[in-house]
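Quick start: what a row looks like.
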Amino acid sequence: MQPGPALQAVLLAVLLAEPRGSKGRLLSGQLVCRGGTRRPCYKVIYFRDAFQRLNFEEAEEACRRDGGQLVSIETEDEQRLIEKFIENLLASDGDFWIGLRRLEKEGNSTACQDLYAWTDGSTSQF
């Protein structure tokens, strides 16, 4: 069964992606891997109840409990893939999270890459 129009929020868990040539929407909890079974894999979680909307920390914890993490975008190609998926979302689909956050540390340089870090500990390469 596909998520209905009552869908209130979208959480980006692990990664988001819409498989090439797919018709319709991804099901909540569905895993999608690039090239069929090749990693990286993507997972979408839908929350139908607006009261279940999560802040960043709650979304991160929900992903960890599910064995995943918020997306860490490693390449420009992967970023374009995520952007393509987001472009297909409706306003009624609600919010989504990625695993990038601003570091609030004294002595941060002004270089953009030094101001942000992925929640999995990796650094942005672009």
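That is the whole record. Residues 1-23 have pLDDT under 50 and may be disordered. The chain has one domain: 9-118.
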